[in-house]
TrEMBL record:
The lineage of its organism: Eukaryota, Viridiplantae, Streptophyta, Embryophyta, Tracheophyta. Residues 368-653 form the Protein kinase domain. This is Protein kinase domain-containing protein. It comes from Zingiber officinale. Residues 673-700 are annotated as: Disordered. One of its GO terms (biological process) is response to other organism. CDD domains: lectin_legume_LecRK_Arcelin_ConA. Residues 673-692 have a biased composition (Polar residues).
Amino acid sequence: MNCYPLPPLLRLPAASFLLLFFLHSVRTQIVTGADGIYSASFPYFDINDDGTDLRLLDADINGRVIQLTPNSRNVPQNFMINKSGRAFLNRPFTLWQLNSSSTSNDTAKRIASFNTTFKIQVLHGNDTIPGEGLSFLLSSHLESAPPGSYGGFLGLTNDTLNGNPDNHFVAIEFDTVRQAYLGDPDDNHVGLDINGVISRNTSSLNFSIASTTAVNHTVWIDYDGAARYLRVYMVVGDDPKPNYTVLETAIDLSIYLEQTFYFGFAASTGITYQVNRLLAWNLTVATFPEGKKRMSAWKIGAIAGGVFVAVVLALGAGLWAWLLARRKMERDASANSSSALLLETLKSLPGTPREFEFKDLYKATNSFDEKLKLGKGGFGEVYRGVLPGENKQVAVKRFSRGATSAPHDFLKELIIINRLRHRHLVPLVGWCHTNNVLLLVYEYMPNGSLDHHLFEGPSGKPTTTLSWERRYNVIAGVASALHYLHNEYEQTVVHRDLKASNIMLDANFNARLGDFGLARALETDKTSYAEQEMPGVPGTMGYVAPECFHTGKATRESDVFGFGAVVLEVVCGRRPRSDIDGFHFLCDWVWKLYREGRILEAVDPRLEEDYDPEDARRLLLLALACSHPIPSERPKMELSVQIISRAMAPPVVPHFKPAFMWPAAPAVVESSSRSTTMSVGTSSREASSMESTLRPFDRV
Ligand SMILES: *[C@@H]1O[C@H](CO)[C@@H](O)[C@H](O)[C@H]1NC(C)=O
Ligand SMILES: *[C@@H]1O[C@H](CO)[C@@H](O)[C@H](O)[C@H]1NC(C)=O
Ligand SMILES: *[C@@H]1O[C@H](CO)[C@@H](O)[C@H](O)[C@H]1NC(C)=O
Ligand SMILES: *[C@@H]1O[C@H](CO)[C@@H](O)[C@H](O)[C@H]1NC(C)=O
Ligand SMILES: *[C@@H]1O[C@H](CO)[C@@H](O)[C@H](O)[C@H]1NC(C)=O
Ligand SMILES: *[C@@H]1O[C@H](CO)[C@@H](O)[C@H](O)[C@H]1NC(C)=O
Ligand SMILES: *[C@@H]1O[C@H](CO)[C@@H](O)[C@H](O)[C@H]1NC(C)=O
Ligand SMILES: *[C@@H]1O[C@H](CO)[C@@H](O)[C@H](O)[C@H]1NC(C)=O
Ligand SMILES: *[C@@H]1O[C@H](CO)[C@@H](O)[C@H](O)[C@H]1NC(C)=O
Ligand SMILES: *[C@@H]1O[C@H](CO)[C@@H](O)[C@H](O)[C@H]1NC(C)=O
Ligand SMILES: *[C@@H]1O[C@H](CO)[C@@H](O)[C@H](O)[C@H]1NC(C)=O
């Protein structure tokens, strides 16, 4: 990879990776005390932070640093120009509370206070000028930068939205380009931006934000909610907090932000570009402790509330018992009533997904126009659409079977899917379930599915060969998503249907897994793998682990098998079920080449010499290890992630493919496709709580 060099300490020897992997689990200290103090500390960032503690939107974690905009020296014209990206703390905060005992407007609102410290690094080439800037962002919407927010819009807003009070953001910008028409004083200043990039207050700096060598800057931003006053301090390097500010001003944030808001960062590049890096971040927020004086009034309220809750609970229990009894009597009808309950649950979930009206989706897809069809899968058809009145492109999946027979199971699954958030999963926007028709609405992935880039798509042959770098990146993305599903979410989720046509590519060719969890929800006949082989649909043969034909159950191990098949497919550019050289499966052919010491001959010939032989060998060996017929012998996703990140050596693979044995050892196959046992997740959380008893939490 050809990138701007990382700060020296961030280049770590591979041997220390394991130790750091462990440290990661106790690194981020996030605490919300009863005293209303919330505190988070990121001394560095880890790829696993995304989707858990953080939410990255068109940004990346690379080398333990958040790259808010891409970092690449390969044809910067293609990769670094006109970009914007954001990173948020994945958690909302309450900005104000009304003081009910106050009559004067001035004291009516109690506003939260916060202190934050972060370290940034802005790099540009020796022969180019920097552009455009980075900012600390308070926003009521946890959203990607709007389209057209590159250049002078700093990933904050765009030409249409600039200055609109509905934007609900306040930002501190660190701007490296003078956009005269946006009122910038010079090309090296800090500014306070409210709902737009025309700064309300600006201040020039007497040191340079951007540099050609890895210079760090430390910034402190303190907001005193009671005084409604903001102070910004900034120094070069790791110097201590100075006694002068670079910008300070009175500001009542509650005028501009909604009551709920998020903390984050945004950055952009324009026709001139720079690397926008966030190296570390501490944040302390003081929200609203219960005042002692108000306690007695609250106590009365609490007792009254307690009684009320008890009554409601009793009524609820009665209702529940009644429901149960009714359910016993009318077993068939009960599915409907519990579905209704689930529907209610789903509707009351915070944030996405939302329920759509059928007529809107009908309109969005131009009445399911054949011309807008993106593809056809085992469960139904996918159409491109534009949501009416929103100008937002989406992919609408219409289910052809399964859902109608088990809406209850489906809704249960949807509740889980809704809560899965990871940068390598296709985000679910919403759903619609009327008259036994089920529709799911996903974010539209402009680059379609992976198989169309490897093999001929609906529009004929792939126009270009997917480059080696992109292939490696796709595999790394899939591994990270599977690792999340298997180990990092509170429950283990098994994808069950991993294949190239279920891997989507976003605008930057990052892999996004689709259809996760759905297979389970929709599969009515658990032994129906073969049935999914439908005419005209690329088959699942070669992706399904051998033991599944016996157990009919998907497990983490069977997902790993599917992952191995995908890796082979991406490296070799052939489908898993391919007749080559007398073999019927790609895997068997690669195993033979490996035995004969010519494994690199398996690499997609269309790449010619344009690949890294060591990395190709690493991936092929990993794929063979994942294709092991005995489930317990396959590497866990955690190990695969480490091998792909080059922190671990590739696995040792036997020269002959071992024989498949059934039944395998009973411990190997989980009794249920989704179990509540967690390997990595639990242990790291335990470690984290242990650690927290041993030393005080980090605070700013
Ligand atoms: C910048 O910060 C990083 C991470 O905090 C540190 O490892 C590095 O040494 C710093 N670089 C300089 C030049 O101070
Ligand atoms: C970047 O944006 C500017 C201004 O909108 C435009 O003139 C230029 O062509 C764009 N460049 C690229 C490579 O997209
Ligand atoms: C609430 O309002 C009362 C009356 O104006 C004032 O005395 C009190 O300090 C306020 N409380 C807070 C926490 O702001
Ligand atoms: C005080 O608040 C009330 C109701 O919110 C509003 O009608 C009134 O105009 C406010 N007074 C001032 C001086 O802002
Ligand atoms: C922020 O820092 C100031 C001064 O160091 C301190 O008085 C205040 O309590 C801090 N606020 C929070 C929310 O930590
Ligand atoms: C964050 O807090 C920790 C612990 O107090 C401190 O060691 C670290 O330097 C702080 N980081 C920044 C960027 O201020
Ligand atoms: C710029 O040149 C200096 C000195 O030759 C070098 O250390 C630095 O890495 C270069 N910066 C970039 C971004 O290429
Ligand atoms: C700005 O963003 C809005 C909302 O996403 C979009 O409708 C509009 O077209 C964008 N404007 C430009 C100039 O890209
Ligand atoms: C910030 O801008 C506001 C509005 O233009 C102005 O009233 C205020 O004096 C400025 N504050 C500073 C510290 O420059
Ligand atoms: C920058 O300005 C501050 C005061 O605003 C001063 O204390 C500091 O020494 C100056 N730094 C340089 C490098 O001139
Ligand atoms: C700020 O700190 C410097 C030393 O770092 C000191 O010389 C100066 O008097 C201080 N200024 C104020 C206003 O406290």
